[in-house]
Write a structure and sequence with these properties.
heterodimer; A: mainly alpha; 4 helices; B: mainly alpha; 72% helix; elongated
């Protein structure tokens, strides 16, 4: 496509800008912890930066554990189709439809 | 012509009948008119209206209206309307008729006042919805639908047995508080649990929903699990076990969602996660917690529908649904992108979006009732749901690396349906009082206090920061073409393999036994022929002349003997 339009995130500067805004928001929200008077229900909530730290650490652990889970849970895409000779012989009807029409309809 | 006694499933079933014999625009008009007319009717039905009839010794209540059932009744109408608008372009009698019947069955279930009626609609939900999966008309969807049907019907059968025990124990089929006492209580609990996708029996959902049609999944996501949540809220409020089950449901699916490639399957996992919040609320059982569970179910139907619709739009336009094949679609599907982000913000419970005003009730209730660890799990799940549903879904579909796919926004009816859902998401988030006024209890809860808004915003922004950081460091697991093993492995792989090996071993043993028998038989024959198959033996074929002479003598003697009498 020679005259491909340039879109907003094709420019790496814009991506950088989004990240900068995100970091700025995070810093601001962290700082608000010290400004806003909070009425808490639980003693942990008194710890400064409890929610930011919990959110960040929680997500990192979530992703790392999920990544580790891949080592023993991941199988080939057609794992459950193995031994099902008919499936591997027949071409995917969707694929055929797509090839014929260049189209979209996946329902019929 | 207004009659409060018309139960809401009737218009849907009658509408389905009309839809079956019409076609084209007329059918579309009928399908749209059904939820609108039925909703207007329901809006005017006062609480406490009910229909009763007697079956043998039992009093049946096929229609009962109270605040709890009304709440689900309203949202089911909204969901049906949105999903019908979304599927207006579909020209498939099978899907259109069964979708109306499915919505009607959901309504029938939440308005049923006795266990027998509940059972009937429970099974109808299964039998009507399975066609939305089969309508994909591929071998994969056929098999997934079959597994779905078997599990759903099993749930119904357990419910029926439980109901019979309940009738024997209590002498009544009334569907009120049941509680975990006696066989009936446990059986019905298990039946509800299967439909509610409790851990270990959750795979029917992640298996079947992503295999359904583009529009079918939107219907599916709204009714089945919410009927189960309603049933739990009716029969088991305050059951402590539910708190732990629910907390597990919020946490474990997010790990699977992070590594899942099929984006509609990611949404299916996050559906379990959201239902987990509702189950925790039902388990705590206080007025605030039940309100939280019910309002979260209300909101979830809309924002989860919106997310499934946006992913359906992507599937419809590109024919692809794997995160690894998508990306960069914001360029050509800008409207869908924005609408998807609204759904993502709602499910992540950003302030001013609908998830925020309902999920916070469950979280507050957990803290108020001393479930500290549960609260921490819910907090983790909240960060996690933002991570996989709030960021991952829009990011991998619409941004990430450019897949090179150039398409366009979906047909207008799909956009309109998504727009309605998005407006509702923001509307409820900005003005929660409207939703709260419909709730079963009046708790005077206000989600928008500074502490709470700040805490939630911090949690979410730092989750986003974690995502950005992991992505920049290249530590985020890439989307890969893969299947991830889950509990379903037991019945999709282990069980068939075990059965096959068992049969193979049986046939082998059988063959060996037969062979041994035949060999033994041959040996016996050989032995016998050794004795009798010699020239002088009994079975010999070479008769000696002596024996012939003897037989001739015997015959002649016989003639002689007979000649004495004749």
């Amino acid at each position: 496509m020679e005259n491909e339009k340039k879109y907003i995130f094709d420019n790496p500067d814009n991506v950088k800008r989004v990240l900068q805004i995100l970091v700025a928001c995070c810093v601001l929200l962290f700082a608000l912890d010290f400004v806003i008077h909070r009425h808490v229900m639980h003693s942990w909530e008194n710890l400064w930066g409890f929610y930011p730290v919990y959110g960040f650490v929680g997500c990192v652990i979530l992703v790392l554990v999920a990544k580790w889970m891949r080592t023993f849970l991941m199988r080939a895409e057609d794992y459950y189709d193995e031994g099902d000779a008919e499936i591997s012989e027949k071409p995917d009807p969707d694929e055929k439809y797509r090839a014929e029409t260049g189209g979209n309809d996946v329902d019929a | 012509m207004w009659m409060p006694e018309i139960p809401p499933f009737l218009p849907f079933f009658i509408g389905a009948l009309f839809a079956a014999v019409t076609r084209g625009t007329l059918r579309g008009v009928i399908m749209l008119a059904v939820p609108v007319a039925s909703a207007l009717h329901l809006w005017m039905v006062p609480e406490g209206v009910h229909l009763q009839l007697a079956l043998f010794d039992y009093q049946l209540t096929p229609y009962r209206v109270d605040k709890l059932s009304l709440m689900f009744g309203y949202v089911f109408h909204i969901a049906a309307f949105i999903a019908i608008v979304y599927s207006l372009h579909v020209r498939d009698t099978l899907q259109q008729v069964t979708a109306l019947m499915y919505a009607g069955s959901g309504l029938g279930a939440v308005f049923s006042g006795d266990l027998l009626t509940l059972f009937v609609f429970w099974e109808l939900l299964a039998f009507t919805s399975v066609f939305l999966i089969w309508a994909r008309r591929s071998r994969r969807s056929y098999q997934a639908g079959m597994r779905y049907l078997i599990i759903q019907v099993l749930s119904g059968v357990i419910l029926l047995i439980g109901a019979l025990f309940h009738a024997a124990e209590n002498g009544s089929l009334d569907f009120g508080f049941i509680g975990l006492e006696g066989i009936a209580g446990w059986l019905i609990f298990i039946a509800f649990g299967i439909k509610c996708a409790f851990p270990f029996v959750h795979n029917w959902l992640t298996d079947a929903y992503p295999e359904a049609t583009v529009t079918g999944t939107v219907f599916l996501s709204a009714f089945t699990t919410k009927v189960a949540v309603y049933a739990l809220a009716r029969g088991y409020p305050g059951t402590e076990l539910l708190v732990y089950i629910g907390a597990t449901m919020t946490c474990f699916p997010i790990f699977f969602a992070v590594i899942e490639n099929d984006l509609r399957r990611v949404l299916a996992y996050s559906l379990i996660n959201q239902v987990g919040f509702m189950v925790v609320g039902v388990g705590i059982g206080t007025a605030l917690a039940i309100n939280g569970a019910v309002s979260h179910a209300f909101n979830d139907v809309i924002f989860k529908g919106l997310l499934f619709m946006s992913m359906g739009a992507v599937l419809h336009m590109t024919g692809r649904m794997n995160g690894s094949d998508l990306g960069g679609l914001y360029k050509t599907m800008p409207k869908t992108t924005v609408l998807c982000i609204v759904g993502a913000a709602s499910i992540s419970a950003f302030p001013l979006f609908s998830g925020f005003v309902s999920k916070s009730m469950v979280m507050s209730a957990a803290l108020e009732n001393g479930y500290d660890w549960i609260w921490l799990m819910l907090l983790f799940a909240s960060a996690g749901v933002f991570h996989h549903a709030g960021i991952k879904i829009p990011y991998f579909a619409f941004f990430a690396h450019d897949s090179g796919i150039r398409t366009s926004d979906p047909p207008n009816n799909m956009l309109l349906a998504m727009l309605i859902a998005a407006v509702l998401c923001i509307g409820i988030g900005v003005y929660p009082a409207a939703l709260y006024s419909l709730l079963p209890y009046d708790t005077g809860y206000n989600p928008y206090d500074a502490t709470h808004v700040l805490a939630q915003t911090q949690l979410l922004f730092f989750s986003a920061l974690a995502f950005a950081w992991l992505n920049l460091r290249g530590m985020y697991p890439p989307e890969l073409h893969s299947t991830n093993l889950d509990v379903e492995w037991f019945y999709r792989r282990l069980f068939p393999v075990a059965i096959q090996s068992l049969f193979a071993a049986t046939w082998k043993l059988d063959g060996a036994l037969r062979q041994a028998f035949v060999t033994r038989l041959h040996q016996c024959l050989h032995y016998l022929s050794g004795i009798y198959h010699v020239p002088t033996g009994l079975l010999t074929s070479a008769r000696p002349a002596g024996s012939m002479a003897m037989w001739v003598a015997i015959f002649l003697a016989g003639y002689l003997f007979l000649s004495f009498f004749y």
